[in-house]
């Protein structure tokens, strides 16, 4: 049966503190610690426990394509992976400035894995992340227009710390999609960061968007304050 202290910790949902208290009692280390030392250990454990729970929740809600981390990446300059750039991105500072990250390269060269790793790192920093296939996002926006929740959805996207759009450019955008994409980028410009992943070089995105005026506005907001990663080499899938 839990003792009165454990009962209160359970009631207050202080799970990290409870686990640490149990460990201290089992190992009898609580007898050699002062009240302040024991309390400090328990508080540290509670902070770590809450950070871990928040990370797991953020990672689960993000919907990443791959379970990936920057530490697992094979750094190879010949493939376009610059260790200095990745170190810079790992700090998360780009998200504080609302800078974009544009990842391009051929099919199977690791673009989506890299984007997932950046998203994972953002969750480590406690940021809210949303990962979408671009076409599925466009379909989602079409659906929320029909059910009348489009403004709520755009507001949610505008408040998301890091938005990752994968497979951009596989199809051309129709007129409504052009406007929707413009609204997404405009809402986030200079405030929240966006990662865009594409098989096409950035120079071809103008044609994908289609409407010259809208394309100019979108690319102006994305390209000028962005980190560019162009992955090279043959498909990694061939080596698996």
Automatic annotation (TrEMBL):
SUPFAM superfamilies, A to Z: P-loop containing nucleoside triphosphate hydrolases
Organism: Echinicola soli
Family: Belongs to the IS21/IS1162 putative ATP-binding protein family.
Superkingdom of this protein's organism: Bacteria
Keywords: ATP-binding, Nucleotide-binding
Name of this protein: ATP-binding protein
Biological process according to GO: DNA replication
InterPro entries: AAA+_ATPase (IPR003593), DNAC/IstB-like (IPR028350), IstB (IPR047661), IstB_ATP-bd (IPR002611), P-loop_NTPase (IPR027417)
Keyword ATP-binding in record: yes
Gene3D superfamilies: P-loop containing nucleotide triphosphate hydrolases
AAA+ ATPase domain location: 97-230
